Amino acid sequence: MRQYLVVVRAGPNSFHRRLIAEDPARNWDCWVNWYAEGAPEDVAERYVLGGINKFEGLEQLLARWEGPFPYRYVLSLDDDVDFAPGGISRLFAVCDRNDLFLVQPSLGWDSFYSHDITLRNPACLRRRVSFIEVMAPCFSAAALELLRPTFLLTRSTWGIDLAWTVRCGDTHPMHVVDEVRAVHTKPIERNSGAFYRMLRASGVDPQAELAEVLKQLPPGRFRAANRAAGHAFRPGIPRAVAPLAMWFFEHMKWLAKVNQSVRRKLRRRAARRAAAGAG
Q: Closest Cα partner for 57 from 119, 111, 8?
């Protein structure tokens, strides 16, 4: 058993097989939580089917564990999030070396994304932030204990990460790790995506669930932003200049938004052409 754990919410095209193959000296075990029955394989340490979403699946896995949970950090990963070879092992090493509480990898500017704060800032090794999203959160053992009661708040997962912001507050720092970059390879299709179609078929309204979570939480605490302090800047950037460099790259992230918009339009155009050709 290794020190760290990756739990992948996986479908048939999950990246977990390649992430394992490209990291032969990996420091993490992999548990695969299928959302649809996968083809037989034995590349990961454990397989399980269950849960309507990734956190229901993770909660079921944790509930089945007998005795003290042995892993120092747990990364809960969507199956369409990609890393460079060895990237996940580097993420865990950064977390442990710096005793980080709750983190996520930064997203490349070529990713599909929802929040500017999650995009990589080239001036930083890591940034202390007010918000970590549900796509690829990495929990320390202490964070897992603190935040586990939030995992079943909603079936859509909407609002769960807002509850983390409140529970962590000013006491438990959250960080985006800029020195480890991931890529979210697929857009979030709230109208046509398989997960959202399943939610509608089950009578689940993500917006309504989010509204219910917001009613339970203190108002005015949910701006996804860098904190005023607590950042680690890249070596070689003069200390006096580093905050300005960080500010500059944060304000250039509109370029990623433009890129994402163009790529979405191209995907939709290609899908329409494919549908027309099939017809």
A: 8
Considering only CA atoms, which of 131, 70, 120, 73 is closest in space to residue 99? Answer: 73
Give the three-class secondary structure for 33. Answer: strand
pTM, two decimal places:
0.92
Measured CA distances, 18 to 14, 47, 147 (Å): 9, 16, 30
Q: How far, in Å, CA of 140 to CA of 138, rounded?
A: 7
CB 108 within 8 A of CB 183: yes
pLDDT digits (tens, 9 = 90+) for 36-84: 777 789 999 999 888 889 999 999 888 888 888 899 999 999 999 999 9
Residue 164 is which amino acid?
Answer: W
DSSP 8-state code for residue 226: B
Measured N-to-C along each axis, helices 160-168 and 206-216 cross at an angle, to the nearest 10 degrees, of: 20
Closest residue by Cα to residue 5 from 84, 95, 72: 72
Burial of 179: CB neighbours in 10 Å, binned 0-12, 13-18, 19+: middle
Domain 4-278 fold: Spore Coat Polysaccharide Biosynthesis Protein SpsA; Chain A (3.90.550)
Q: Where are the domains of the chain?
A: 4-278
Spell out where the chain has E strands.
4-10, 28-34, 46-49, 73-78, 81-83, 102-107, 124-129, 138-140, 174-184, 232-233
Residues 6+ positions from 17 with CB-CB distance below 8 Å? 41, 43
